[in-house]
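#help-structures

NK: newbie question. if I give both the sequence and a SMILES, will the prediction place the ligand too? trying with S-adenosylmethionine
OV: yes, paste both and it writes out the complex. here, I ran yours:
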Amino acid sequence: MIFHCPVLVAEVIRYMRLQPGNTYCDCTAGGGGHLLQMLQASPESTFIGIDWDPDAIAHAQSVLQAYHDQCTLIQGNFAEIDLILERLKLDELDGILFDCGVSLYQVTTPARGFSYDHDGPLLMRMSPNTMALKERLRSISKHELAFILRSYGDVRGYRRIAELLYARRMSLRTTVDIRTIVEQGTPKRFQKKNCRRVFQALRIWVNDELNNLANGLAAAFERLRVGGRLIAIAYHSGEDRIIKRQFREHHANKRGVLLAKKVIRPSAEEVRVNPRARSARLRVCEKCA
Ligand SMILES: C[S@@+](CC[C@H](N)C(=O)[O-])C[C@H]1O[C@@H](n2cnc3c(N)ncnc32)[C@H](O)[C@@H]1O
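OV: that's the protein plus ligand as structure tokens.
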């Protein structure tokens, strides 16, 4: 099973400017793909890997077994990076990576409830401590549901789909129930795209992804040593907006420098090999004195 295929690896390694003896943090360890490449590129550096998903941490632990002396893996929410670093007795870091969104494992494992392609329970949560989609839907208002579909998924016909979902929210049991409703409310030729958008919107809502990113990214910047670099990869316009805004503010306040003037995208060759990389957008900010 392929857990995840890391994107923009060469760019992450180049911008991280890995140095022996320095400490780096991957806030979204996932299957350990970026961590493994960074460990191989700089075996005398120290790494922290955080992920909210215990399955990701278990997988990363097995992939990174040979490096257990240089790499500490922690299950937790990156929005709580301060708490995590305090527990590790670490004040500052030399580089921090956020690779937002979901892993291939999460979206292709029916039991996790992220997938519209397979029947699965209405969970859609990254951490077992988060309230599942099924419970969240029971207490939502029609207005809120429409807002979520529009702002997190740009869903076509979001009002109608919100109405259909709202009317049947108490009897929804599986991901296929949601898919069926979306298909009912969408013209045939847009159904697949709209399913993807609805599932993305619900996932972002259930996991409070945009607030976590805004809080985690801001806290991470404060933990950077002067000269340290914050690298963030977005897959969705909502994520990219938060990253762009924070990095530009640091630049404007002379607390940071934007290292790449333009957003960095994967090459055509990378997208050919890994089509899921196509929406990736990488930004880098270096902390100034
Ligand atoms: C795109 S994947 C990262 C893949 C990883 N870079 C790799 O090479 O395998 C995103 C990961 O971020 C994790 N994640 C999402 N929100 C999180 C949060 N608030 N705190 C910690 N991890 C989070 C997900 O569980 C998922 O494993």
